[in-house]
């Protein structure tokens, strides 16, 4: 998965490089993101550093956490309605709740795919994106030790859209962007929503 992540970064460099064969109109989006992924940790008594060596079984806790963070994307225009979008986001929040374990969760997404948009003053857009995700969980608690997972990499895809309010020909406000995000982490599939707002710049 790390190789896949590196390959996507190389693709971004090719994507943003000037090309006389492609339209040079670019769009840059920056904004706030709200992400609701399920987060799982395995906790056991700290005096049992190896799973299965204690008479007290390890406990698996899965919570759907509200993570807040950022989202940024670069889009290259191929036609008046079609762009190719490369999108990155990072979201942060608590690891667990309702259990004597405290911690933090960080999740990153790197996605790319086509986006179709309208041209009215309140312009709709839709996109389908695919790529990679990384989820990191760091947690500890009184008399408890979180043993797994510490960091997970996996496949990610998103489908969604939203509305941009045009202020000037080069600047719009993204009123809302809503995505249905599917990830595969730890051998299972997760489904979660992502909501974003922010600003769109055209060059």
Structure, described:
The protein is mostly beta strands and 203 residues long. It has a single domain (2-11, 24-202), classed as Porin (Beta Barrel), CATH 2.40.160.20. It is built from one helix and eleven strands, in the order H-E-E-E-E-E-E-E-E-E-E-E. A hairpin with a 2-residue loop joins strand 9 and strand 10. It has one helix at residues 2-16, and strands spanning 26-35, 38-45, 59-64, 67-77, 82-94, 102-117, 122-141, 144-148, 151-168, 171-185, 188-202.
Lateral arrangement of strands in the main beta sheet? 1-4-5-6-7-9-10-11
Helices, by number, come to 1
Query: What series of H and E elements makes up the topology?
Result: HEEEEEEEEEEE
Second rung of CATH, namely the architecture: Beta Barrel
β-strand percent reads: over 45%
Q: What count of domains describes the coordinates?
A: 1
Q: Layout of SSEs?
A:
Blueprint (H helix, E strand, L loop, with lengths): L1 H15 L9 E10 L2 E8 L13 E6 L2 E11 L4 E13 L7 E16 L4 E20 L2 E5 L2 E18 L2 E15 L2 E15 L1
Labels describing this entry:
mainly beta; 11 strands; about 5% helix; eight-stranded antiparallel barrel; elongated; 1 helix; Porin; about 200 residues
